[in-house]
Design goal:
The complex is a heterodimer of chains A (261) and B (310).
Chain A: H1 3-24, H2 28-45, H3 47-53, H4 58-77, H5 80-91, H6 94-99, H7 107-133, H8 142-169, H9 173-178, H10 181-185, H11 201-209, H12 212-224, H13 231-258
Chain B: E1 5-14, E2 17-27, E3 31-36, H1 43-50, E4 58-63, E5 66-67, H2 72-78, E6 79-82, H3 94-104, H4 109-122, H5 138-150, E7 156-160, H6 168-183, E8 187-192, H7 195-201, E9 204-209, E10 212-217, H8 219-224, E11 230-234, H9 238-247, E12 252-254, E13 259-263, H10 268-277, E14 284-288, H11 292-300, H12 304-307
Parallel strand pairs in B: 3-8, 3-9, 6-7, 7-8
Antiparallel strand pairs in B: 1-2, 1-4, 4-5, 9-10, 11-13, 11-14, 12-13
The chains are: A mainly alpha (261), B alpha/beta (310).
């Protein structure tokens, strides 16, 4: 078999392993819980006030406004998955076995990234289903929905590599679960829950220049069929930048930890 | 025949601490080579270098003719490693663990399934195959661990303290498996701190102490290097002991145990000579041939058990 065929087959084997773990120890409940609580809280408790605040009519208008932010909150929460599963693997004996076997170097990490990506996308679909039940109606064409799905997948993939890097970087499972925390706050410090114009000046500057604002605005545009503007290509640039940082960092650290000097 | 494993001037330090010091070793294929030494002697460090987990500071290590630093992939394709800490996936069942290994060794679906069944059977794990590992005993986990190592029929198998922490029955089972492997032509590189284990299994033993090899040979050769063979005679009372002592002038008296130790090489002639000279009948008569504990003490000047947590 060629090197490429090996890499693909080993990654598929590791993906199957990760999904078996996911079925046996489902973390998907945790992935769904936080975004659902925020969705219900923001729409039913603060929704009337916030809806009026953004110039709409009550909680229905706010539901439409907040759903893209909540979906990205779900995706951001998914970073914890690979961080945990990679760091757990590294603390257990089996990783030494993998390292003494002639298997593709990147397969161990790819398996975790792909497995966790599937879980976080599933979680996002469930959160979206709840939003639809609550009365959320996008205004998107089929292409709009497909674009939204593609965007969420791309962001999720990039963030899962970042999560894998956290997992290799962390000293143990404990710190691996804490490292992704700042990322999960980013949707709140963007245009996810309130428009950035309503924020104080310094925060507004940050909100407008961090990745989650273009992510949220691009998703909003795709779901409601409005103009993408700069948010489309800005999102893609951020996806490539975050994904590359995660991928290179994770592989570099994994390689360095593999064969000790 | 080319060597299975070669070490030339291998050195490794962790910070200030020299773990391996200019080590040379040559292991021929097939059979069991045992590296014997107390905890902290450097056994695991050697295994980690040979299995490509660790880089040496200097010197050359070759496995199956491949340099472990320059051609790690070629080495990994040849070897299997079972360490003292279990390297199994705790969230999978026994069967799933084996299938995972079969897939990673690219055995193919059919061959993978066949080999998995075969190993489950041979390692007496068929009944537990579908159960999660949390229900496995220590001995079962160790057997599964070894089965996972053997799935691709590696020609060189490293067993790093394979019976540490196992109960006596599991230990004997493990020894039986090792003998079967050797019979099939596998080269086994065994590390152990149990002198009896090396004696039971190994064709050749190297004694490692503080990063250097202090002796190297067959178990019999090593034992010959130490005087320590003796006949022990125990008597019922002081009077019988004193009487016997006068007839056996080269014996050492052990008053507390009412016993005499007579030097002997264990040969029939030497035993008969002692019996002929005895006038009073001893209570017990035991022949002590030197064991590897004696060997270790004679070679290093300190006891293996001083440092080893047995």
């Amino acid at each position: 078999m060629s090197t490429l065929a090996h890499t693909v087959s080993d990654s598929a084997t590791m993906l199957r392993r990760n999904l078996k773990h996911a079925v046996r120890y489902p973390v998907i409940t945790y992935l769904i819980m936080t975004p659902l609580i925020f969705l219900v809280l923001f729409v039913y408790v603060f929704g009337d006030t916030l809806g009026t605040g953004i110039g709409g009519a009550g909680s229905d208008a706010y539901l439409d406004y907040v759903v893209p932010g909540v979906l990205l909150l779900t995706i951001a929460g998914g970073v914890t998955g690979p961080a945990l599963s990679v760091s757990k693997d590294l603390t257990e004996g089996i990783i030494a076995r993998f390292r003494t076997m002639d298997i593709s170097r990147s397969a161990v990490l790819s398996g975790h990234v792909l497995g966790n990506l599937i879980q976080v996308l599933l979680a996002t679909a469930i959160v979206l289903a709840v939003a639809l039940l609550m009365g959320f109606r996008g205004d998107a064409s089929l292409w709009g929905w497909l674009g939204a799905a593609g965007l969420l997948t791309a962001i999720g993939y990039a963030l899962c590599w970042l999560g894998a890097a956290f997992g290799v970087f962390a000293k143990g499972v404990e710190s691996a679960s804490n490292l992704p925390m700042p990322l999960m706050i980013l949707p709140f410090l963007g245009s996810g829950f309130v428009p950035t114009e309503s924020m104080p000046g310094w925060l507004q500057w940050f909100a407008e220049h961090q990745p989650f604002t273009p992510f949220i605005e691009a998703l909003r545009a795709l779901l409601f069929g409005t103009e993408l503007g700069d948010n489309g290509w800005l999102s893609l640039v951020w996806v490539v930048v975050l994904g590359l940082i995660g991928w290179l960092w994770a592989r570099h650290l994994y390689e360095r930890k593999s064969v000790r000097a | 025949m080319p060597s299975a494993i070669e070490l030339e001037g291998l050195s490794k330090s962790f910070g200030e601490k020299v773990v391996l010091d200019q080590l040379d070793l040559d292991v021929s294929p097939a059979g069991v080579f045992a590296l014997l030494g107390p905890n902290g002697a450097g056994k695991t460090t050697i295994v980690h270098i040979l299995s490509t987990l660790l880089r040496p500071d200097s010197g050359v290590a070759r496995v199956g003719g491949h340099d472990v630093v320059a051609q790690p992939e070629a080495v990994r394709a040849l070897i299997g490693l079972t360490g003292q800490f279990s390297a199994v996936d705790n969230l999978l069942t026994g069967e799933e663990n084996l299938r995972l290994m079969a897939d990673l060794r690219h055995l193919g679906r059919k061959e993978g399934a066949r080999r998995t069944r075969e190993l489950l059977e041979r390692f007496d794990l068929t009944e537990a195959a579908g159960k999660p590992l949390s229900t496995y005993s220590g001995g079962m986990r160790r057997r599964l661990d070894l089965a996972m190592t053997l799935i691709s029929r590696p020609s060189i198998v490293f067993l790093d303290e394979p019976t540490t922490g196992l109960d006596p029955r599991s230990r004997v089972e493990m020894w039986q498996i090792v003998r079967e492997l050797v019979a099939a032509g596998t080269t086994i590189f065994l590390t152990t701190q149990y002198l009896e284990e090396a004696d039971q299994l190994a064709d050749r033993i190297a004694v490692l102490d503080r990063g250097t090899i202090v002796a190297d040979g067959t178990p019999a050769e090593l034992k010959r290097r130490v005087p320590g063979g003796r006949i022990r005679l125990e008597f019922s009372d002081e009077h019988a002991l004193t009487h016997a002592a006068t007839t056996l002038p080269d014996a050492t008296r052990d008053d507390a145990a009412l016993a005499l130790d007579v030097p002997s090489d264990g040969s029939f002639a030497s035993i008969r000579a002692v019996m002929d000279r005895l006038e009073s009948e001893p209570l017990t008569f035991t022949i002590h041939t030197p064991d590897l504990d004696d060997v270790f003490f004679a070679l290093t000047g300190h006891e293996a058990t001083q440092e080893a947590a047995r």
